[in-house]
Hints:
alpha+beta; Thiol Ester Dehydrase, Chain A
Amino acid sequence: MTDTSSDACVLPVRIYYEDTDAGGVVYYANYAKYMERGRTEWLRALGVDQSALATREKCLFVVAGLAIQYRRPARLDDVINVNSSVKRIGAASIEFAQSVTRNGELLCEGTVKVGCVDADTFRPAPIPSELRLLLEKVSS
């Protein structure tokens, strides 16, 4: 269940065998997947239908930049929380601050820049005004 009780979203994720290496530690690239899920579920909880945006507004979101700092490992059977919030909204981009925690302990943190592109040309496009207003409202 996604918690969006504030400007941030918290998505709990259980670590499965498929997420780990032979030592039972989460493979480093999976944190980017968890962060993707966190952003997607946060938008979904806000009522944003990304499929409809692509069809109706010709708007897609692509990751333009990612920086992650790893602190502690997550392990098989852990339940982690993926925390997502908007850091900055540009004309055609959104910068998210994200972290992964376990029982309040910081496991990793990062910044993800997502660009809005035209669904037909994949060239930068302005964030649709209705979505921009919603994001500004929940991130203030």
